[in-house]
Specification:
Layout (H helix, E strand, L loop, with lengths): L3 E5 L4 H12 L3 E6 L2 H10 L4 E5 L5 H14 L5 E4 L12 H29 L1 E7 L12 H22 L5 E9 L17 H13 L4 E4 L3 H10 L2 H4 L4
Helix pairs in contact: 1-6, 3-4, 4-5
Length: 240
């Protein structure tokens, strides 16, 4: 029997490429996103293995409705990946610029994580993967809401991992993926150690298959993670 996966935020970038890799691995994949026309283009590549559902993660009621529909699509779900996220520079600390980031990366993500965990608990097993960011490790004066929202996700996923370890009636795996710079639409301006979507996603798939608790993408971002954790904030202000 083939495995089944759901990817929230799969119309482009990491989500799109990960869906392709999972199909190549023999999965049936439900892909979601706001831009239905892009989802249809992906489905055309392999109509038998892709299922599509237009969905906005900001709409928490729609998220609940989607989870209610899952049993009509799949007898079981092995993997759920939450990839949707946004971020915007906000030098002036305008509420209008930060609110969408908070709504998507905190409120929307929390709803998906909660529903996924409870779905797997009722099913008896499953693997939940969150795509957070290396940005979750420290603050940033230019994009404070994005960094804070990713820190929230990292801590929430760790909390679910702890919870899963104490859930005796279900075998639930939790993986937090922390990418550095990946060549997607969300990246603007000059960066370093930019990875292609293809390279980053192959490493993400490897981490998923290994059921790692936490994985830095690409692997060399582990070096930056170690440095960020020990450098005093007063030094970071010169760069971030």
């Amino acid at each position: 029997m083939s495995k089944n996966a759901i990817i929230f935020g799969a119309s482009s970038g990491i989500g799109k490429e990960l869906a392709r890799l999972l199909v190549n691995e023999g999965y049936k994949v439900l892909i979601t996103g706001r831009r239905i026309e892009l989802l249809k283009q992906i489905q055309k590549e392999n109509p038998e293995d892709y299922f599509i559902q237009q969905h906005d993660v900001d709409d928490v009621n729609a998220t609940k409705n989607l989870f209610d529909l899952i049993p009509t699509m799949f007898q079981k779900v092995d993997l759920i990946v939450h990839n949707a996220g946004i971020g915007k520079e906000n030098y002036a600390l305008n509420w209008e610029d930060d609110y969408p980031t908070i709504q998507t990366n905190v409120v929307g993500a929390t709803r998906i994580y909660q529903l996924s965990y409870n779905f797997f608990k009722n099913q008896g097993y499953g693997h939940l993967v969150g795509i957070s960011s290396i940005a979750s490790l420290r603050g940033n004066r230019h994009v404070p809401a994005y960094h804070a929202s990713k820190a929230y996700q990292t801590n929430y996923l760790e909390s679910l991992w702890m919870k899963a370890k104490r859930t005796k009636k279900a075998n639930i795996n939790i993986t937090n993926i922390l990418p550095g710079y990946v060549d997607t639409d969300i990246i603007t301006g000059e960066t370093f150690w930019m990875a292609s979507v293809e390279k980053a996603t192959k490493q993400i798939l490897k981490a998923i298959k290994s059921k790692k608790r936490k994985a830095y993408i690409t692997k060399r971002w582990l070096i930056i993670a170690i440095v960020l954790k020990i450098v005093p904030a007063r030094i970071l202000t010169k760069y971030f």
